[in-house]
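Re: folding output
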Amino acid sequence: MKQIEVFQDMSMAGPIAARPALRLALIEAAVHPWRVDLERSAEVARSAMTSEDVILFRRTPGRDHPSAGLTLWGNNEGYYVPNIVPLESGSLTFTQYNTILKDFIARVAAPVVNKFGYEITTTEGQQSPDTWLSSNTALMLRRFSSAANKSTGASHPSDEQRWFDFLVAVHRSRDKLGADMLARWLHEADGWDIDSAHKLAGDFEKSLALLDFYDEH
């Protein structure tokens, strides 16, 4: 199925008892173009009112991206990256975000994690409904999108039936698909105009909420 570019997720999982030693190793590994801002790390942890470990890394600008800040947030498995943000203004593109994440892994994280029994896991930077949905549900979406008149959405009875089939399949499978990701895939990968894609995504969100309400009552 056609794919779209997305922000990658990254986590480090291993023995929690080794996390303090891993923390020190990650801080020591952050040499140019990376550095650690421990003062800001403590401020973020205080403002978030969390007891989890927070480490903020800074990277100088690269050829294809601006200076950026990457946060490592502790959890019961180790660490994960909740966000990467530009240090000046604007926002990062998907490509810039993923480039910075890969650079952090290659320069800082990968050289040290194995020493402490940790493994790095990342999601794919290119994804499709096959990534987010069960195979049957993804098939329902593919059938709807490929057969539908993209200028009329799901208004034709046959298109509406296939759309309903997809909605019910998502509801039954409890697959996790955000309306924003659905809209992006419809528009960027499968040729829907942006207004129609957002209209379908809005209907998707409301319909699933209604189906959940029905189940509960």
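--- second protein (sequence, then structure) ---
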Amino acid sequence: MTPTLRDRWLEWRDGLLASARFQRWAATFPLTRPIARRRAAALFDLCGGFIYSQILLACVRLQLFEKLAGSPQTVAQLAPRLALSEAETRRLLEAALALKLLQKRSGGRYGLGPHGAALLGNGGVAEMVAHHALLYEDLSDPVALLRGQVGETRLQRFWAYAGSPDPGRVAPGGAAGYSDLMSASQAMIAEEVLNAYPLARHRCLLDVGGGQGTFLQAAARRWPHLRLRLFDLPAVAARADSAFEAAGLSDRATTTGGDFHRDPLPRGADVVSLVRIVHDHDDDSALALLKSVRAALPDGGRLLVAEPMSGASGAEPAGAAYFGFYLLAMGSGRPRYPEELKALLSEAGFRRSRLVATSRPLLVRLLVAET
């Protein structure tokens, strides 16, 4: 294949950036010095990213943000509350300060920084940070993970259905951990999806893989006329049943336990949602699921595919990097570009699909498909 002009330019650029002589010159020349410094800082952040994540994990485990909410404190005040020496408390606080998790206040006190305050306002993020301890263990040898030389991973054990030959037999205890985690982070996702695609025109929503019903409850609060149906593994559907009863939605909500790899989906809904479901599955399983959804929908029905996707402008690392390796450790699925999902939807029998903008594509993007 003949290299394009762009290919040749990129090869020239790569050779230049790899030159130690050029790097020294760029770091001192006034016009290139700011760019060189930004590039060096970005490269250092890639090298130090694991340490940064461990600092965040320490803050979450010690409930540092909760302890500082509305009440900035000194090192001496915080140390006994964290069960750390003053020297190590200062080390942690200064590290969190550098990551904008904390911010200096008057009188030598530390308070919440912009990142710490945002995290405190979303408990689902803190839950994910704590959960990442499993992922860090699985990524201790990323090359072995890529080569398939690792046995059962921590994430496979956590997501009990992922590696099970019979997911429908997952016991309630095996479903509790991941169901609680998904529920904790689902409220923010639901807001994004329901803002992007209002359901006023629909009469019945079926949420496939709907967990404990958090997405359906959010839809129910906005549209009182909407009937609700949930399909998930029997152990999970039972938890959703209890959640609907506690929320006073038993008269509007119906749950069905089953395995969508084997069981047909319930019919009767005119809109179906797959919220962070498709990317958990390899292409063959994802296509089979989409075909099952198409069979359950009437003509004129809609399918909402809501999940992080590759290629989101400004959020590229979330797709290919974060979810790419998270799902690798989980043992199933991959992040996809919208065009790849559209191709699967077309093959599954949907007439057309369109990408609907969400306000935070880092969290979730939305495809709406029509039957």
